[in-house]
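User: Please work through this fold.
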Amino acid sequence: MASKLQFNFQLKDWFSDLAEQFRNLDPKDPSNWPVLPRALVFVSVTVLCLVVLWFLWLSDNQTTLTTEQEKELTLRDEYKLKLGKAINLDALKKQREQVQLYVTQLEKQLPSKAEMDALLSDVNQAGLGRSLQFDLFRPGQVVVKDYYAELPIAVRVTGKYHDIGNFAADVANLSRIVTLNNMTIVPAKDGMLAMDATAKTFRYLDSEEISAQRMAAKGAKK
């Protein structure tokens, strides 16, 4: 019993000593404070600094996390797009081959520069073969495009209705591409009809002409 009372008195004295260290503290001179108050202030300031730094670090990391999440969404979309292309790659290759084949077939229908005279002769012969009279057959100025040249031909023929129609069909069925544009048909003498039209034929450019076109395009950009 005596030892228990003695312990209580010692505990009371210990608390009393602790409380005494916090009395009459001078806030202007913490360096003269007892050990315990100074230790508590040091621990409090340290904890406060750590808390502030922790929230600042979390704020920076939150910004980084948001940025990376946005990048993830963008990369997911790109992945889906590329995956779709990869899945359809074989089909796209086949379509490309078909387009190239079609372009090659069209190029074969375009005469070269050396074949233009023969083509003009074919158009003329198509009219004569249908007993049409050529009142005008005048090639115009060649118009050079990116990869082909266009030659307009002013045409005026006189003949019967069915013969003019068959002539137009014969021109459309030539092995080379020839189109009839701006056609006008009016009555002529003796029950005949006169047709005015612009026949257009096309030829592909040779390598020298393509090079000249590219050089001219580069010069225009400068």
Observations:
- The longest strand covers residues 148-159.
- The beta strands are 133-139, 143-144, 148-159, 178-187, 193-204.
- The two ends are 109 Å apart (CA to CA).
- The mean pLDDT is 78.
